[in-house]
């Protein structure tokens, strides 16, 4: 029986669906092999390559964030802040993780950061960089505006910027930090380890948009820096800076410096230089402004050295305050030693009062060079005060074996030896501390440090009495008087060396003194560099500044007057100018 034709067509084999058995097996084996290779590859990546792949993933999305420690506060001796850290924001980006930034957002970002568009684009174009700062230390408000742009890969982090409330007044003492928060000048540099503290860290996982997904390790908390309490009294510092600036400007000087020491402890109550600078805005800072002249500059101190050979002679019993000396000019080899206002004879007290080169040099020559060198060495000349201040100068005191008689003579009135202002002020502590040389300290002391004995207390007392005559009528520093207090000290006027010769028209005017003279509390040293206002003598250019600084400082400290409160001072315009050549 024949089947219907339609049924036969429907059940006939279709050519497209017929496959040979061998081909079927080949396809099945191929698929099985590929599947097996995928399994092997997965096992290989999960075992052998696990660490490598994990590191690569973390390198792209794992970040270690620095948790910045808050830098320690610097205060004066009364707790007034001199350097504090204020929170700011820094904007950074991760170029390798960032998609292209639309031109309009790039322009908006550059505008907010006050940067050229090209500079911002260049920083973001380097895809090899994982991290780049776009702008550091901006206000939190501005940082919020930047983040509101919503640019993937752009983030912010908190930092701290140093602020100095006293500005230029304290600049040379406190110094400043760089944009990275590290000390670069002054005590910010000297006490970096103490102030910096230790930064913490936070290890996080971020997505491509810079958002933190999770913490990958325990957070290491930052350890803030310690508070540094200085010996400086900010009130005295303001006073010293103001009067020094007035003296420099009045005398049309190149520069000036002042040091105020506690005569019983050696603490630095004030140290100022002029010109100065504002550490909060250093955009126009010049190298000359940064120089802490009172610590790093060296000069020949002139007649401010005369009390030392005189005290040496009194200590040795060779002279007394009332001993008469021949002060006529005399020869040492081809050189002549003479005074600006010669007298045939003077007492030892008058040698100090009138600033006699002849008298001081004759007392110096009573000793062998080695003896005089040893005494100067005991006073700290030729080596730093070890105050810890960065860049402190050591001064220059040549070995005694090379001294000639004329050199020993001139060193008695301040030529042939170089000192810094802080060295000179420190040396005067032997007169205020009953013969003991005090160490210098820029930090507040709980109790005075041990002094090194140099003179007998009786010698120091006699020197104080003689040095009082310098500020009394007939002395070289009547302008240094202080109403209500006895003042003792010594003037100095030295020529500056230029090209190996002493310049005829470049001088340094000095006055170093202490008060109250009968019970010393303060030592004030004033240096005026190259005064060009008509006079250059120490008593004229430095004496008035000393008087104003000392008077104000004694009132601030509440020091009881040691002279009649109703005494009067000679008006400045009635005080004759007494010349001195050293």
Automatic annotation (TrEMBL):
Q: Which InterPro entries match?
A: Beta-lactam/transpept, Beta-lactam/transpept-like, FtsI_transpept, PBP_dimer, PBP_dimer_sf, PCN-bd_Tpept
The catalytic residues are 303
Q: Which Pfam families match?
A: PBP_dimer, Transpeptidase
Q: Where in the cell is it found?
A: Membrane
Reaction(s) the record says it catalyses:
Preferential cleavage: (Ac)2-L-Lys-D-Ala-|-D-Ala. Also transpeptidation of peptidyl-alanyl moieties that are N-acyl substituents of D-alanine
The record's EC number reads 3.4.16.4
Q: Give the family from UniProt.
A: Belongs to the transpeptidase family. FtsI subfamily.
Q: Record's HAMAP family?
A: FtsI_transpept
Task: Return the protein name.
Answer: Peptidoglycan D,D-transpeptidase FtsI
